[in-house]
């Protein structure tokens, strides 16, 4: 997991480091990382032309980083050019670059050189960016390496100007800044690497933590054991799915197929009678579950998990349910059970607010989050959510005493105690009908597998573990989106086709 900080926090830590280690020495260290990243990108080029690196230089320390990096490249015999975007420039860094044989031109005099560059380093603005000024237009297909933050992206909020310099890669210094991951950030940064400048962050507390691939693997492996290979189907995860209606029969099928594709031991489906045969045909692995069997499953799980009954370990509730009809007695009983549940879509319209014994994850998108908050008596606008997603997600987490996953281009996972995780840089192609139903299937399966929850018998799954598994499911879903988008357009059925392959990559 990688901690994420606000600009103010990073500024405070940088000020300490500057006084301890000196601003120029830190800048040179940052520039060295930038030069190595540039060399790495140049090594990927297949062209026979000699490398030519152009840096766009702004008036502050971000420009200074760019100039020191160019100086290093010059010394490595790479041809470079610095194009000044402002009259003002970091004097010491400019002198160092010129001493290394580099040439500096005003952007207006050297703009035509941009088209010849094998790589453009964007060192116009970094942490000091203020919204509102014009930015240069880069040639189409330019390869751009952003120094710290793409120019035109607000490093705190993640809101980008229309003219933001789109990067293929962003090398950010010291720590992840919140704006790189929120709102427009994932669309403009390209791949992000954090250059470790050995800052001491002990005096500030990260706002949240990013869950990336390494963290996902570590979290998934936390409770796994070699003994898992010998489990029988009831131990591999039995999921109860309460979903579907005449109005939305497809959503239930997508969630069911996704859970089966994940490798669930057994899927029990509670769908309206009218769509049961459709479910049996399209998901032949699923076994129906009627109201009486739900009651029996709940009572046997209260006595002992290995007793008679459906042996359901977790529930997925909501995809395609008809939100206009109140939940039947059986669903209300499930909400009162101690088994973990993921609640999505129309399930969010009926999930009770207030304290509950059940470890729950609610998975709203922004509009559903407004609905949840409104049901709890809190009226907010979409803008308010966009400006402070973690805050409002936490309100819902508190009101419903549940972990809440706010879905969107960036996903936020927040617990009632305020702990939060985030998943970013997944695939924009996931914005397609039914992809949320697939996520519910993945998460439902994960909550049902005790090798992942780490709980056996009647011990409840702690909220922290619910959060971690939710983040893992969101990360895998994002990765699934990327894998699927790599060889065609994305739809929910194609996501499900690729799910077994992707789950295998994560040790399933
Ligand atoms: N210890 C440190 O403080 C380190 C700082 N580093 C670099 O320093 C950068 C921050 O440097 P600065 O604080 O000088 O900020 P920037 O270099 O991001 O830019 C600040 C300058 O740009 C001007 N500016 C900002 N937005 C503008 C706009 N829209 N129109 C016109 N002018 C605008 C400001 O007035 C200011 O002069 C970081 O992003 C990073 O690249 C790195 O060298 C790592 C170490
Ligand atoms: N622009 C985007 N980039 C990455 N992921 C996205 C984007 N838009 C939506 N998603 C993801 O796609 C899924 C959509 O789910 P949801 O809104 O419930 O749709 P549906 O109900 O149609 O299945 C969520 O997991 C969300 O995080």
From TrEMBL:
The keyword Lyase applies. Its cofactor is K(+); Mg(2+). It catalyses: (6R)-NADPHX = (6S)-NADPHX; (6S)-NADPHX + ADP = AMP + phosphate + NADPH + H(+); (6R)-NADHX = (6S)-NADHX; (6S)-NADHX + ADP = AMP + phosphate + NADH + H(+). (6S)-NADPHX binds at residues 251, 320, 365, 437. Residues 5-205 form the YjeF N-terminal domain. Residues 216-506 form the YjeF C-terminal domain. InterPro entries: Carbohydrate_kinase_pred_CS, CARKD, Nnr, Ribokinase-like, YjeF_N_dom, YjeF_N_dom_sf. SUPFAM superfamilies: Ribokinase-like (SSF53613), YjeF N-terminal domain-like (SSF64153). CDD domains: YXKO-related. Pfam families: Carb_kinase, YjeF_N. It comes from the Bacteria. AMP binds at residues 407-411, 436. Its EC number is 4.2.1.136. Binds 1 potassium ion per subunit. Keywords: ATP-binding, Isomerase, Lyase, Metal-binding, Multifunctional enzyme, NAD, NADP, Nucleotide-binding, Potassium. It is an enzyme of class 4 (lyase). In the N-terminal section; belongs to the NnrE/AIBP family. Bifunctional enzyme that catalyzes the epimerization of the S- and R-forms of NAD(P)HX and the dehydration of the S-form of NAD(P)HX at the expense of ADP, which is converted to AMP. This allows the repair of both epimers of NAD(P)HX, a damaged form of NAD(P)H that is a result of enzymatic or heat-dependent hydration. Catalyzes the dehydration of the S-form of NAD(P)HX at the expense of ADP, which is converted to AMP. Together with NAD(P)HX epimerase, which catalyzes the epimerization of the S- and R-forms, the enzyme allows the repair of both epimers of NAD(P)HX, a damaged form of NAD(P)H that is a result of enzymatic or heat-dependent hydration. Homotetramer. This is ADP-dependent (S)-NAD(P)H-hydrate dehydratase. It comes from Glutamicibacter arilaitensis (strain DSM 16368 / CIP 108037 / IAM 15318 / JCM 13566 / NCIMB 14258 / Re117) (Arthrobacter arilaitensis). The lineage of its organism: Bacteria, Bacillati, Actinomycetota, Actinomycetes, Micrococcales.
């Amino acid at each position: 997991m990688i901690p994420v900080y606000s600009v103010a926090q990073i500024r405070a830590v940088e000020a300490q480091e500057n006084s301890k280690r000196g601003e120029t020495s830190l800048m040179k260290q940052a520039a060295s990382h930038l030069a190595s990243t540039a060399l790495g990108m140049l090594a990927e080029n297949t062209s026979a032309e000699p490398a030519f690196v152009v840096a766009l230089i702004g008036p502050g320390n971000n420009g200074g980083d760019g100039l020191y990096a160019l100086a290093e490249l010059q010394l490595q015999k790479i041809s470079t050019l610095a194009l000044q975007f402002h009259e003002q420039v970091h004097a010491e860094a400019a002198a160092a670059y010129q001493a290394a044989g580099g040439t500096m031109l005003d952007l207006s005099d050297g703009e035509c050189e941009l088209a010849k560059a094998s790589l453009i380093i964007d060192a116009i603005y970094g942490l000091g960016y203020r919204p509102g000024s014009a930015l240069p237009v880069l040639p189409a297909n330019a390869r751009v390496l952003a120094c710290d933050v793409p120019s035109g992206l607000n490093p705190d909020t993640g809101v980008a100007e229309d003219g933001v310099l789109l990067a293929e890669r962003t090398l950010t210094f010291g720590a992840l800044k919140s704006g790189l991951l929120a709102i427009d950030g994932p669309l403009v940064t390209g791949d992000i690497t954090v250059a470790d400048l050995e800052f001491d962050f002990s005096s500030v507390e990260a706002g949240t933590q990013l869950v990336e691939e390494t963290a996902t693997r570590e979290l998934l492996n936390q409770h796994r054991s070699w003994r898992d290979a010998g489990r029988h189907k009831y131990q591999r995860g039995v999921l109860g799915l309460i979903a579907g209606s005449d109005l939305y029969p497809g959503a239930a099928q997508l969630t069911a197929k996704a859970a089966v594709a994940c490798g669930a031991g057994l899927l029990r489906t509670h769908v309206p009678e009218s769509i049961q045969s459709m479910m049996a045909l399209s998901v032949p692995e699923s076994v129906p579950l009627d109201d009486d069997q739900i009651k029996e499953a709940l009572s046997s799980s209260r006595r002992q998990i290995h007793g008679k009954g459906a042996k359901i370990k977790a529930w997925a509730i909501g995809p395609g349910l008809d939100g206009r009809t109140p939940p039947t007695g059986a669903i209300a009983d499930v909400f009162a059970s101690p088994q973990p549940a993921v609640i999505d879509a129309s399930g969010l319209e009926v999930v009770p607010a207030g304290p509950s014994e059940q470890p729950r994850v609610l998975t709203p998108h922004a509009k559903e989050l407004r609905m949840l908050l409104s049901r709890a008596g809190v009226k907010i606008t979409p803008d308010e959510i966009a400006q402070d997603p973690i805050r409002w997600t936490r309100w819902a987490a508190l009101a419903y005493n549940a972990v809440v996953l706010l879905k969107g281009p960036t996903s936020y996972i927040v617990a009632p105690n305020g702990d939060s995780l985030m998943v970013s840089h997944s695939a924009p192609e996931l914005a397609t009908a039914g992809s949320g139903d697939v996520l519910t299937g993945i998460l439902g399966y994960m909550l049902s597998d005790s090798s992942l929850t780490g709980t056996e018998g009647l011990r409840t799954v702690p909220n922290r573990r619910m959060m971690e598994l939710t983040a893992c499911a969101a990360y895998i879903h994002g990765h699934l989106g990327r894998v699927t988008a790599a060889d065609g357009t994305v739809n929910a059925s194609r996501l499900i086709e690729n799910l077994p392959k992707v789950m295998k990559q994560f040790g399933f």
